[in-house]
Amino acid sequence: MISSLLAASNMSSKLTLIAPEILLFVGSVVVAVLGLARSTAIRRAVPTVTALFLLGSIGVTAYVYRTDAVETSNLLLPQLGGFVKALIAVIGILLVMIAGPAIDRRLEEAFDSGGAAFDPIRVMRGEYFAFFLLSLAGTMLIANANDLIWLFLAIELSSLPTYVMVAVSRGSRRAQEAAVKYFYLGALSAATFLYGFALLYGASGTLDLAEMRMVFANMPELPTLAILGGVMAILGIAFKLAAVPMHFYAPDVYEGAGSQTTAFLGFMPKIAGAVALMVLLGVFWTPATDASGAATAVLPNAILATLWMIAVLTMVLGNIGALLQRNVKRMLAYSSIAQSGYLLIGIVTGPGAGYNSILFYLIGYGVMNTAVFAVLGSLERQGEEVETLDDLSGLRQRQPALAWMLALSAIGLIGIPPLIGFFGKLALFAAAIDHGQTALVIIAAVTTAVSAFYYLQLVAVPMLGSPTARTDAVHAVPSSWPRVAAVVCGVGVLVMPLAIERLVTASAATEVPTTQSIEAAAGAVETDAVDAAVLDPAAGSTGAKIAAR
Amino acid sequence: MLPALTYLLLLVPIAAAAAVSLAPSRTAKWIATFGSLAAFVVSLAFAWSFPGWSDGSMHPAEAGISIMPSLGISLTMGTDSVGLMLILLTTFLMPLAMIGSFTAVTEREKEYYGWFMLLEAAMVGVFLAKDAIMFYTAYEFTLVPMFFLISIFGGKDRRPASIKFFLYTFLGSVLTLSGIIYIAANYANAHGGQWTFDLAALANHCSTAMDRTTQYWVFILLMAGFAVKVPLFPVHTWLPLAHDQAPTAGSVILAGTLLKLGTYGVYRIALPTAPVGGVELDQFFAILCVIAIVNTALICWVQKDAKKLIAYSSVSHLGFCMLGLFALNPLGATGSVMYMTNHGLSTGELFLCIGMIYERYNTKNMDELGGLFKKMPVWSFFMVLFTFASLGLPGLNGFVGEFLCLMGCFIAEPGASNYPGLLGPWWALIAGSGLILAAMYLLIMLGKLVWGPLREPHGDGHGDAHGHGGAQDHGGSHATHGSTLPRDLSAREIGILVPLAIVCLAIGFYPKPMLEAITPSAEKVLAGYPALVTEYAANGSLLPATAAGSPEVAIADVVTATEPTSRTNEVNQTR
């Protein structure tokens, strides 16, 4: 419906493709207002409404990405958005199931029992879910970025709400400390990649990514300015991924935030960072042929070396750091750093097989990560969050279903076949080896073996340990939604391999750039001159210059 | 018929596992027993209708269910005479191990029997796999049941033992996976992007179309996982701990079948896939085998714990098994496969015997036990029989494989007419000293446990009338069940040991059908070797001059090969 309304407009393709995000923007406003309602029932409905808007955005995505708007867009990776938006919305719904009952729980209980009068200043649920939807919309927008300004704004839109979400995620000082830390370092990273973007603009004379790619492709050698800009942008985005050397915040922030928000941080910034890198690096990948004559793409050596080193350091330091933790959330923070390292293998491998394998990997990772945090979110100890391994000891005897789900997802995260995690790694490794990154895969294989040690703790402690005096105080939270999310994710880990080829096909959303596709995308900028002129008066003339060359 | 049976072989244990998990706890052991017996019957039917006994061919030949067409992964099942023999070994041992656990395991029975059934499915899956990813899936999945079995039902150090077992094996096998993916990617590059993980296609591609330096490195990657599983000398340290801590049935299956996954991997994947690596590293691995044989035999000599002794003896025995493979001739390889089956039988038996003692006395320490012949003549009879089988007494099953392995090693000289090799009489001589050592430590064990004055753990009144055995709980996870067991073996226990004894004798007296079934398969596996060995013997190396014998140079080669070529060059090519 939205697309038909927009069809008349000359900005149709751009706006059509962001219909899911527009829906989420509307949703965030609705949710923010509902959250302030005096009626308990309406406030209670906030997570449900959030989930419904996410469900709606899945439907809109599925509809919009079947139209020919995709073909006529000037995006570097036109199909990318369809998959990414659907995945974000699906995982988003699972995250809402974990976060829904947790936010404002104490306050609502106090309202119910008459211990406190309703006070719109103190309720947070509406704000939390409004920001939640805004962040998801920002993350989705990254996939549609066609120029640097858009990319910057989308990344910031996905980041800024998370600072607030961390702060309000639980009524603890540590959450606020984590939020402040996250905010300042986030601002630093934003400055870093903005500086990088500026250098890229300086090197190419355009903000439009398709044009920039054309400009770079026509240069006999890339200017240092462009390389430097690329490296700085990568470092800035590495913050989102929590990749070395921008990973220092992750353990503290993960630990400080409430489990529901940590679950969010474990997935959404990862997909945001990975997609941002895919979109941004699109300007550097140049078509080439490999030894056997097949079409492939190459990166400038300096950029490749940067990514390569970040990937190796991230895998190694993330996994070693996780070995040393007793706090489950800190351990998972380091493990998520390590997972970013694996994602970077796909980035190094490139558009086509490499990017697709990341997208496929993210399906499994998103479900397993959510399952682990859903289990943590289902438990509490004397009203506090369950955080250490000691709290989980002997969980099997009290909460067998949760213990099994935790074990299942931890085994999946190790990458043991036939669970979904194994197929993610398999696709990633296969793509990387196919593109000559054997050394990277071997490092990844060895660090995966290291990761088995700490993931096994998540299996061994709940399944084999015995309850202690400390764990006697551990109980399930009253709401069953987090448990439902845990079971859904756990079953997903087990069942998804049955539909493996469907998932692979769905995640095959990027293609190797060819000379024709580069020219076609840059040409689409020309025909889309109206909005190009609105956004950037210089764009039209640069495009003309390229065409004349 | 045959394809249906392959699916049944996998599905019967899985169905049994599902049934165990759903049914009440007290029925678990019966479901597992009948499930594993059903699997044994299916495997017998499979063996009966198997057409490839005499020519080493793979059956059934049909393609399986495609799982992931984009990467060419499919559930394709089929095996040859060697794999089938190991399937029979697995399905034969499993019911015995299950029945042997009736009194040893009384808590968390659902998990115990359920995991065993899944383990059986995984092991059968390895021997049935014709697709590398299916092979790897089943191979790797065995870790999960074994991890739980050791860590829930093991001795007092069960947690570290299970984690060490898991990590060691996992590290090795992810490297193997990288090797497999490397070959598949190389295949895809050479076939216009058409991926496949079909083992035969990959082996054919790697051994014929890949350059020699690459084959050399692929072989190392493949061997990384299999060597840990076997286990070969420097990476064997997980095994004694795992065996020591595992419950009896766990040890039986671990020694009987799980270790064979490693040797089978070498036989089925590593050797035929990367023959250049196999030849180039032949002597290196043979040295590791000889060290394993002699070194661990000496370690066995000083063991006080009977179960650890047998665990270490496994390392020593599998050294023979691997040495037979690295003789690179059908004689050695046939011996090796014989050894795989027979080691599975004889070591499994010994673990069962020791487990029966442990159930009664709660100790495996040979200083505290002795002269048991006086109290347990029936047990002693089986113990002596199986020890002799294990040390390779002619007429029993162990002898045939051991003799053929050494024989294969003996004749594996560069000048041999038919199948030249790189070992020879000296290698066989040194390895043969392991036989003498094996006889020594096993007989010492027998001498302590069976003969001599009766020694029982301090304060043990077990066996006196209906006395409640005062056996101390040495920290094991199980309570003492001594009181429910008779002094000597019960009918159930004898029922477990008799079939094993019969099979031992039968194979020992008439190994010919087995040998005839194995040899054609071994000839196929080693088909590419004679030419390469001759070349190696003439030139001293198979690798191109730059990389010859110098790993540093070879590493540099690999690194440059993986480094991206200059951007501008590549771009100019396309423009």
Structural write-up:
- The complex is a heterodimer of chains A (549) and B (575).
- Chain A has a domain at 290-513.
- Chain A is mainly alpha-helical and 549 residues long.
- Chain A has helices spanning 2-6, 12-17, 19-34, 40-44, 46-64, 69-72, 80-99, 105-113, 125-143, 148-168, 173-204, 209-218, 224-241, 249-256, 259-281, 301-323, 328-349, 353-377, 389-392, 395-398, 400-414, 420-434, 438-464, 481-495, 500-507, 515-527, 529-535, 537-548, and strands spanning 286-289, 295-298, 379-381, 384-385, 474-476.
- Chain A has 28 helices and five strands.
- The two termini of chain A are 42 Å apart.
- The longest helix of chain A is centred in the middle third of the chain and has 32 residues, at 173-204.
- Chain A is globular, with a radius of gyration of 23 Å.
- Chain A is 74% helix and 3% strand.
- A three-stranded antiparallel β-sheet of chain A has the order 4-3-5.
- Chain B has a two-stranded antiparallel sheet with strand order 1-2.
- Classes of the chains: A mainly alpha (549), B mainly alpha (575).
- Chains A and B meet through strand 1, helix 22, helix 23 and helix 25 of A and strand 1, helix 5, helix 6, helix 7 and helix 22 of B.
Keywords summarizing the entry:
heterodimer; A: 549 residues; mainly alpha; two-stranded antiparallel sheet; disordered N terminus; B: 575 residues; globular; disordered C terminus
